[in-house]
Design a protein that fits this description.
- By secondary structure, this protein is of the alpha+beta class.
- The chain has one domain (17-140).
- Helix content is 40%, strand content 22%.
- The chain contains 2 helices and 5 strands, in the order H-E-E-H-E-E-E.
- The strands form 2 sheets. The protein has a 3-stranded antiparallel β-sheet, covered by helices on one side. A two-stranded antiparallel ribbon has the order 1-2.
- The relative contact order is 0.18.
Length: 144
C-alpha cells in the first residue's frame, strides 16, 4: 500500500470547525434563552407574591364591633381592586394579569398571575411571539 503523495487535505478541517462553531453558538443561545426565561418567571413570582401580600394586608376589613379573634373580625374587602392598585404603582408590571380568588372559608387569598414575555434568542427556538408564564401565590390575613 502506498500513500497518495498528490492528495491535499489542508482544507478539510474548515467545515468541521464551522460545524462545531454553529453547535457551540446554538448551545450558548439556548443557555441564555433558558436563563432569561427562568429570570422572567422568578420576577413574575416576586410580583405575584407582593400582590398577595398587599392584597392580604390591605383587604382585611377589621370589624370593630366583632371580637378581634373571631371569624367575623377579618373579612376581605375588594381584593381585585387592591391587587390592581398594587400593579398600577409600577409601569413595568403593566403586562401582568392577576386573578384573585378567596378560599371557601374566605380567609385565604389565592392569586394566579400570568404574563407573556419575550426572551433573548426566542425566535431562534420558535418562541418569537414570547412565552407565557403562569405562577400562583397565596396569603392569609395578617391577623388571622
Amino acid at each position: 500500500m502506498s500513500v497518495d503523495a498528490g492528495r491535499d487535505d489542508r482544507g478539510s478541517t474548515a467545515p468541521l470547525i464551522l460545524g462545531f462553531f454553529i453547535i457551540a453558538l446554538t448551545v450558548v443561545a439556548g443557555a441564555v434563552a433558558a436563563g432569561d426565561a427562568f429570570v422572567q418567571q422568578r420576577g413574575l413570582q416576586d410580583v405575584c407574591d407582593g400582590a398577595a401580600a398587599a392584597g392580604a394586608a390591605g383587604a382585611a376589613n377589621l370589624d370593630r364591633a366583632a371580637t378581634l379573634g373571631s371569624e367575623r373580625a377579618l373579612q376581605f374587602a375588594d381584593v381585585q381592586r387592591i391587587v390592581d392598585d398594587y400593579l398600577a404603582r409600577d409601569p413595568g408590571r403593566g403586562a401582568v394579569q392577576i386573578q384573585a380568588a378567596l378560599s371557601a372559608d374566605a380567609r385565604t387569598l389565592q392569586l394566579t398571575c400570568t404574563e407573556t414575555v419575550h426572551i433573548a434568542f426566542g425566535a431562534m427556538f420558535g418562541k418569537g411571539h414570547g412565552i407565557r408564564h403562569v405562577v400562583t401565590s397565596s396569603a392569609r390575613a395578617p391577623l388571622s
